[in-house]
Amino acid sequence: MNKVLVTQIRSTIKRPKRQVLTIQALGLGKINKTVEKELTPQIAGMISKVSHLVNVKNV
After folding, report:
1. I need a surface site. Which of 4, 7, 24, 37 has the fewest CB within 10 A?
2. Which helix (H) or strand (E) holds 38?
3. The domain 3-58: what is its CATH number?
C-alpha cells in the first residue's frame, strides 16, 4: 500500500462534529500536526471528507 503524510492546516473550531471526529480518528487535532498513514480506501474517504482542513503528500 502507498503511504501518505496528512498534515492538519486549518482549525476545527466552528466545524460540524462529524468533521472534528474524523480529524481525531486520523490522529490529528492540532494545526501543523502530521501523521503518516497507509492509503486504504477507508483512510482515503476520511481524507476526502476533511480535505479543506488537511494537506496530503505522498511518501
Report:
1. 24
2. strand 34-38
3. 3.30.1390.20
